[in-house]
Amino acid sequence: QVQLVESGGGLVQAGGSLRLSCAASGFTFSRTSMNWYRQAPGKEREFAATINPTGSSTYYAESVKGRFTISRDNAKNTVYLQMNSLKPEDTAVYYCKATGSANWGQGTQVTVSP
């Protein structure tokens, strides 16, 4: 069964950085594209970034492009999201998701203060 455990969230001032991690299990991680989504208070969950199985290709939402970097370590079954130049509007619960799976992790809260 697909299991995803996000970590690394916290409270940071605007302009700061955080690195999120997502530990995955229950599927062949090295053959699966991985994604980060986020859900701000009162808003629908939205796509943030995706990475292909080898890590050679990535794609970002316009709202995070140039500030966030998705990466992965297939030896550790882990996907990361490096977030720089954080803004208050980045405040959200961040989730990772395996492409083709309906499972979500519990998410990790990111709060950016002005």
Task: Compose a concise summary of this entry.
With 114 residues, the chain is mainly beta. Helices cover 0% and strands 50% of the residues.
Features:
single chain; 114 residues; mainly beta; 6-stranded mixed beta sheet; 4-stranded antiparallel beta sheet; 0% helix; 50% strand
Helix-strand makeup class: mainly beta
* H/E series: EEEEEEEEEE
> Beta-strand percentage?
over 45%
Sheet with most strands: 6 strands, mixed
Terminal residue distance: 40 Å
User: Low-confidence segments, ≥5 residues, pLDDT <50?
Assistant: none
Q: What is the strand arrangement across the widest sheet?
A: 2-10-9-4-5-6
Number of strand elements = 10
Global mean pLDDT: 97
